[in-house]
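Troubleshooting: if your tokenizer reports a length mismatch, compare against these two reference records.
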Amino acid sequence: MNGRRNRNIEAELQTVLDQGGNVWAIGDVHGYADTLLCLIDSLNLSSRDRVVLLGDLIDRGPNSCEVIRIARENPQVFSVLGNHEEMMLKSFDVENIGLMTPLQAGWFYIGGRATSLSYISEFTNSNGKLEDFNLKLRVGKDLAWLDSLPHHIVLDDFRLVHAGYSPWDGNLDLQSTDNLLWIRGEFHNSITPVDDKRTVVFGHSTMPGFGLKQTEVWESEAELKNSRPAAIGIDSCCYAGKDPQLTALNLQTGDIVKQRVLPRKKTTTEMEI
């Protein structure tokens, strides 16, 4: 399947940039809702500024349910789809939520069980009873929203995508979702820009995976004609490593803001398990 774009979102973001406003790209959040809110607060957004989450909002961290709510309800926040959301869309079995079923096993292996538990915690009342109706209603809304997300966002000077593009597959706007959500090495190692006019800003591949510190960002050796990097990776790995954090990149100014992951609070469900 070819990747999906949303021209209305692209037009809104480009207008913000054209009028001197800030558009911030944020790397993989992986369920760290409190850290995301702290990072957004530190950006001091004006009413015209916008934020784009580069996919993998969910899994591994403690509160994926809340991260989705933030992204879905905040009109200043947009998102592209990540490979973890793709797995959730294919695998989430609300009738067997939290259970290792054949359908959910692959998703649980990459962190999906933490997402299931965040929904259980959110919809377990003070008497310890799961509010099944409200849970299913919320899951349905969240899955429908995730299924509507673009796979990439194309602006005048940037492409925002979860994983990247293949340098061998021709028209970037016709590339498969497998490339956009999962690609690594062949994109990172390209000796020429995949887009001669735009810098690709992506998540998915962590700084430790590039051999970098979590306080750094990755820039491609390939450059555009204006000497900007052909690609910039900003997934600082918020769920593991010596210094887990989230990274935001300002597309207007090039400024980088990082937020160390806040201490994790165990949910009631986790304490019981």
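Reference record two:
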Amino acid sequence: MFGIQYYRQIFKLIFAVSLVFISYIPVKAQTVNNQSQPNKKQPKNPPRQQNSRKKPRKNFVYFRQPQRQGTPRGTRPAGSRQGCPISEKQQLSALVPLTKETSGRELRWGLTTKANPSFWFYVPHRLNSINNAKFSLRNRQNKTIYEKELQLINTPGIIRISVPDNAISLKVGEWYQYYLFMDIDCSSKGVYRKEFAQAWVKREAIASGFETRLEKISLRQRGLFYAQNGIWYDAIMSFAKLKYEPGRNTEWNQILESVGLGRFSQVRVIDCCD
């Protein structure tokens, strides 16, 4: 017969082996479970990582950029020409959200519901340094469908360019590209630098009767509707109109900031080109 001490040793051994086996099962099951269900919701990030995220600002105007569907190819970023230095702050720019492609190309594009939307540009140059300025609207095949020589006044600043109703109407579902060309005198020796800003616009259809309903709500509500639905040109136009009301430039500043154009939010808007 075995003594009590012997059975105690056997019991301790069985208990130790059981603990090892039990502790192994959850780890193994968790590994298999993660591999077989890759789409299962993962545990939340540690609090330190969550706190590092930027929280949406209350009552802030955000522009929701839509998915790129059938957008044209981007272009290489513009630089200085003919030996005239240029910085980002001095660069002629279209006020349109920028998409950067993996190839290094850049694409500025937006949507509108209007047949004749307005186009916004930042002109950093003083009037006496601008030799000439020209606006050009082209179809996707790069064929010019509207062009106009501009008479600028009181630059630098932000300008708005509109295409007359009797000149051309954008077709629903079609892409158009537009340019602002300038010859800039960048030295005392009469050396000119050719500059241009370029972007794309596509007209989207709007439900019958819905535009009339939009006209009956406030400018702010209208602008928010366009911003939340990714209609850039109509959103910025709504907030531009609101900007001229005393103390109502907040929405204009915020929508520019929301798409990385905040550096232009405090630039004055000047009369031009209508």
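Descriptive notes for reference record two:
- The helical segments are 4-36, 47-51, 210-215, 219-228, 232-243, 250-258.
- The two ends are 112 Å apart (CA to CA).
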